[in-house]
Amino acid sequence: MNECPNCGAQITRMTSSGQEQILCNLNNEGGLQEGLDIMPLLIEASYLKTYPEERRGRAFVEFAREGDAISMIDMLKEDAEDSDGEATIDLLRYQDPLGGMSSALHAAVNSNNVTVAWLLLWLASGLDTARFPQEITTHAEEMELSRANVTGKLDVRTLKDSDGMTAQQCATIAGGVWTEWIKHGWLDA
């Protein structure tokens, strides 16, 4: 993917950090975007063509990054309804190979999405129910989200990204909204 298939010109460039990029000018309904790096898009498209089963996991992590808890819940409910004994991807514990092995909890922490972080702890951690704030417990019950038995499964708080960091370690570095979480040990595994 280094040369143009039509003219043979070199199309990839190296960034100062040593990453390959393909810059283009894209003009679509959103207007003109000059110098757009399409390399990440091409890599993702190629990866998902090779591994289509990863599509839902990547979408789940992206919803966590965007703070879209409702879409995450919808995906989990769809999986529960469609479950016919076939092995499916564990969305709650999925780690994105193209995103530095980030889990949904890493994505939520790195983008300050507290609601999503609570959702993930509720559904996929061993955090004692008594340690959840009452408003979270009440909201989960209103949405009919029962706590799953995590015995024999990884607690989402133990997952490490490609840098060897847990979501708790990411939260410690981020500070801000996560300071209270660290103080209360909600992300401790």
What is the topology?
Blueprint: E1 13-14, E2 20-21, E3 23-28, E4 31-37, H1 39-50, H2 55-66, H3 69-82, E5 95-96, E6 102-103, H4 104-110, H5 114-124, H6 134-142, H7 167-174, H8 178-184
Antiparallel strand pairs: 1-2, 3-4, 5-6
Properties at a glance:
single chain, 189 residues, alpha+beta, two-stranded antiparallel sheet, two-stranded antiparallel ribbon, 42% helix, elongated
Oligomerization state: single chain
How far is it from the N-terminal to the C-terminal residue, by CA? 43 Å
Strand order of the largest sheet: 1-2
Question: H/E series, N to C?
Answer: EEEEHHHEEHHHHH
SS class: alpha+beta
Helix fraction bin: 40-55%
Q: Unreliable runs, pLDDT <50, ≥5 residues? A: none
Radius of gyration: 20 Å
Strand count, sense and barrel status of the largest sheet are: 2 strands, antiparallel
Mean pLDDT: 90
Total DSSP helices: 8
The proportion of residues in beta strands is 5-15%
Number of strand elements: 6
Form type: elongated
Structure description:
A hairpin with a 5-residue loop joins strand 1 (13-14) and strand 2. The chain is built from 8 helices and 6 strands. With 189 residues, the chain is α+β, with helices and mostly antiparallel strands. The mean pLDDT is 90. The strands form 3 sheets. The protein has a two-stranded antiparallel ribbon with strand order 1-2. It is elongated and about 65 Å long. It has helices at 39-50, 55-66, 69-82, 104-110, 114-124, 134-142, 167-174, 178-184, and strands at residues 13-14, 20-21, 23-28, 31-37, 95-96, 102-103. Helices cover 42% and strands 11% of the residues.
